[in-house]
Amino acid sequence: MMTLFACAGPASAQVNGVFVDNLKTLRVEVNGLWDHAPVVPMGGQNYVEISFDDLQHSYERRTYHITHCNADWTPSELLENEYLDGFNDRPIENYEPSMNTTMMYNHYTLRLPNEDVRLKVSGNFIVDIYEDGDDEPVARACFSVLDSKVDARMTVSPNTDIDQYASHQQVSLSLNYYTYNVHRPEEELRPVVLQNRRWDTRVDVGRPSNLQSTELFYEHKDELIFNAGNEYRRFEILDEYVPTMRVESMSYHEPYYHATIMTDEQRRNYIYDEDQDGRFLVRNGDNVDNETESDYFITHFQLDMPEIEGGKVYLNGDLTYNSYSEDYEMEYDPSINAYIIALPLKQGSYNYQYMFVPDGYDRGSEIETEGSFYQTENEYSVYIYHRPFGSRYDHLVGYATVRFKV
What's the pTM? Predict the structure, then answer.
């Protein structure tokens, strides 16, 4: 079985995350849709909403700083007044305290655009959140603004250039730029493909395999072969007293509730499930005031399998921002021959998986923990960036997503 890795480097730096222990459940949603990627069309009534919880449960003045970025998420050469109308470094003023929860918190929300600032150009944006007076951000949220000019189409096949109906899936891509003015499309248009919105799977696609009139084709490209993985595992923590989906037990150890997820095992075959490709949805058993009346439970995970040498195992999914920070690294307990981790999670429905990251790499591998099988339903996305000759930034001119099903 072939394993595909990417070498460590700055290209995978785009990732949401919190950098202090008291901030939890950072989310970036477009137009109120929890199950969509953070890509917002320009203009109209479209908006991005960034939210998070502060477990300090006391108001802290926080400000946000917006940075425009290139396709690789490094800051672009644009000045603030070239990508923003209004003012940067404004306070986040919308917050609400939690109600009737054992773990108290304040829930903060920031909507863009707002009365202070509007975005003027397409491309990638980073929003860094600061505590008053600090020089380093306490959280980071990433999203993209789309000015749709290019029609992108994708197909996915388990019949790949390295195996047939085994452990991989291969993406084929076409870009139709119609009347859009592109002087040298094969050089100026830059497709970036992701699997399940994970930026560690990012592929910067090279030159097209074929060019016809106003259309570029990317077919039989080795870089567009992905490990198929396995379906995400799922659980729900909705009730303080009654175990729900895949929860083995609920208990209360003052001052907090604890949820123990059913013990997982290393997967050696494909497991079908209707997953949400790594997402989570905050909600409680009553589905009322989900943002402020959903409690936090200390949630315990256990993966039974032999210890893997030469790397680390992480809990992975949107619940960990698809990052491989030490906060989500699992500890191996030789007394029970299992990897374990516990972390506070807000009530809701969750997807997750276990990822192995070899030493010296920044891309996770599912093969060692979840297996890799061609039947797996995966979500593939493509971002189309355009850097016209003489331009000082990468425009986002196309976006498409497809969910592969056998």
Answer: 0.94
- What class is the 13-146 domain? mainly beta
Give ∠ CA 360-364-366 in degrees, rounded to 5. 135
- What whole-number distance in Å separates Cα of residue 126 and Cα of residue 141? 6
Query: In whole angstroms, what is the distance from residue 370 CA to residue 230 CA?
Result: 6
Contact 231, 376 (CB under 8 A): yes
CATH class of 233-358: mainly beta
How do residues 258-290 score in pLDDT, each as one tens digit?
999 999 999 999 999 999 999 999 999 988 899
Residues in contact with 154: Cβ distance below 8 Å, sequence separation at least 6, in sequence order? 171, 172, 173, 193, 380, 382, 400, 401, 402
Longest dimension (CA), the chain: 68
Domain(s) of CATH 2.60.40: residues in the chain: 13-146, 151-228+377-403, 233-358
Please give the span between the terminal C-alpha atoms of the chain, in angstroms, as a whole number: 20
- Could you give phi then psi for residue 167, rounded to 5 degrees? -130, 10
Nearest-angstrom CA–CA distance, 240 and 249: 10
What tens digit of pLDDT does each residue of 377-398 get?
A: 999 999 999 999 989 999 999 9
3-state secondary structure the chain: CCCCCCECCHHHCCCCEECCCCEEEEEEEECCECCCCCEEECCCCCCEEEEEEECCCCCCCEEEEEEEECCCCCECCCCHHHHEEECCCEECCEEEECCCCCCCCEEEEEEECCCCEEECCCEEEEEEEEECCCCCCCEEEEEEEECCCCEEEEEEECECCCCECCCEEEEEEEEECCCCCCCCHHHHEEEEEEECCEEEEEEECCCCCEEECCEEEECCCHHHEEECCCCCEEEEECCCCCCCCCEEEEEEECCEEEEEECCEECCCCCCCCCCCCCCEEECCCCCCCHHHHCCEEEEEEEEECCCCCCEEEEEECHHHCCCCCHHHECEEECCCCEEEEEEEEECEEEEEEEEEEECCECCCECCCCCCCCCCCCCEEEEEEEECCCCCCCCEEEEEEEEECCC
Low-confidence ranges of the chain (pLDDT < 50): 1-12
- 292 Cβ partners below 8 Å, 6+ apart? 96, 97, 98, 99, 107
Provide the CATH topology of domain 151-228+377-403.
Answer: Immunoglobulin-like (2.60.40)
Length of the chain: 406
